[in-house]
């Protein structure tokens, strides 16, 4: 998905938007960190202790509803920034960020981060543009999903993941971000059981192949027909 006008694609990460000198200066402010798969980087409702600049590895951003349902809000990977809202507003964190694989990052204290933004207005504008691009993309996705059935939303999600996080193999396009059935369900507002039924349907139609932690899209044309409301 691309942002409207002259904006960058909302998937273009924060560090990639900075000039080389700006990027190095910001990274020099922090401390290198390493997180194991499934380890929490940030916890929802906790006060801000640092901003994280991701160098390698993918994370999931989730939030819990009062009934315990966990919604997948976004995926963040190399070059992305997480935890910036809590640092800038001095409010508790609004989401949970968890490593999907080993993640290397640089942690910057909130005071150092905000002082850097004051001294580098161009970086501040870059961060504002990123937030704007992400907000527009999220609004567009909510609008699209509101008119879709769960089946259509799930097919659309798999196409989006294949485009943004897929690698072509001999069998098709393999998703490079390891998501569980529960995490896929949280992204489309469905139950885990519903996702299992939808995956079985797609396997029966040779549209996808699933393994223990892998998912390969073999027939994107089938997913496109489903996402468009087709049979």
Q: Any chance you could write out the topology, listing elements then pairs?
A:
Layout lengths: L13 H4 L2 H8 L3 E5 L4 E3 L8 E6 L2 E6 L5 E7 L4 E2 L1 H6 L6 E4 L3 E6 L1 H10 L1 H26 L3 H16 E4 L2 E4 L5 H8 L3 H13 L3 E3 L4 E3 L2 H8 L4
Helix pairs in contact: 6-7, 6-9, 7-8
Proportion of helical residues: 40-55%
Supply the helix-strand structural class: alpha+beta
Number of strands: 12
Count of DSSP H/I helices: 9
What Rg do the Cα atoms give? Answer: 19 Å
Mean pLDDT across all amino acids: 88
Reported by name, the CATH topology of the largest domain is Jelly Rolls
Encode the helix/strand succession as letters. Answer: HHEEEEEEHEEHHHEEHHEEH
Protein name: Crp/Fnr family transcriptional regulator
GO molecular function: DNA binding; DNA-binding transcription factor activity
Organism: Streptomyces koyangensis
Keywords: DNA-binding, Transcription, Transcription regulation
Give me a quick take on this structure.
The protein is of the alpha+beta class. It has helices spanning 14-17, 20-27, 84-89, 110-119, 121-146, 150-165, 181-188, 192-204, 220-227, and strands at residues 31-35, 40-42, 51-56, 59-64, 70-76, 81-82, 96-99, 103-108, 166-169, 172-175, 208-210, 215-217.
How would you characterize the overall build of this protein?
The chain has 231 residues and is an alpha+beta fold. It has 2 domains: 12-143, Jelly Rolls (Sandwich); 148-226, Winged helix-like DNA-binding domain superfamily/Winged helix DNA-binding domain (Arc Repressor Mutant, subunit A). The chain is built from 9 helices and 12 strands. It has helices at residues 14-17, 20-27, 84-89, 110-119, 121-146, 150-165, 181-188, 192-204, 220-227; strands at residues 31-35, 40-42, 51-56, 59-64, 70-76, 81-82, 96-99, 103-108, 166-169, 172-175, 208-210, 215-217. Strands 1-8-3-6 form a 4-stranded antiparallel β-sheet. A hairpin with a 5-residue loop joins strand 4 (59-64) and strand 5. Helix 6 (150-165) crosses helix 7 (181-188) and helix 6 (150-165) crosses helix 9. The model is unreliable at 1-7 (pLDDT under 50).
